[in-house]
Amino acid sequence: MRRLFLSGLMALAVTGGAIAQDAHPALWTVHGPRGTVTLIASLHLLPPGTNWHNPAIDGAMRSADSFVFEVPTGMSERDEETRFIIDNGLLPRGETLSALLDDEASKRDYRRALTLAGMEAGTIDQKQPWLAEVVLTVQSMYRRNYSADHTPEGEAHDFAVTHARDIRYLDTTRQQLEFLAGADPSRGVTQLKTVLADFPNQAAREQRFVDAWAGGDLDASAALIAAGLHDLPDESRRLQERNRDWTRQIEAMLTESRSFFVAVGIAHLAGPRGLPALLRADGYKVDGP
Question: How many domains does the chain have?
Fold first, then answer.
């Protein structure tokens, strides 16, 4: 379920050949002492033809003074990502991922996942289990024609650049990468084995998640997120810590005389520990679901 939380690298999507659909992502408006914040639930990759625009969303984008996203994606950030992966994402010399999979069932699952992702073993055999999981998952979705270009995050960022709006970020590139790599290392191979065994079911599972997002069904989204985190207490704790940190940042924005448009992944928004719930608990008026 680490795959739920990737920013530039990961998102949930629908199966290949998906029919273009209208989506109605959840939208909130938070009122502060001086400013307002519009929160939109995003997915980081979507199939072509997904239409999530409506007058409320487009109006909020047009009226926003500042746009806020999870993490920057410029060239310097890509360089930092490369350095981080070299330092933290590769196995020690002489070790291979296939050798760490020490039972025949896991090796078979590994070969099957590579086939589904359209990859050769050599592409990821030197990678740490956490990074192999990321690459396999993302590549399998790219193979099914997913793109970040027309997501709420992607189009809002393009709009902000084109209209010379203020752009801010909630995390640094390093913070996001440390989140991905920071789970208990002793569970890395065990978790990868679980992911590999379930890889053929990935598309159907993600279809359920995207259907919930497209329908604005926050209860279903929260239930899917909670189920995915059920056996990952460390990741659940770190997600909650990030949500609390982002809540503090949003509360600081609300003291400015500005309107903000904030587009982040739905995993940070749904459920009792999502940003809207935390802001309400802190006494802010939040319009929306």
Answer: 1
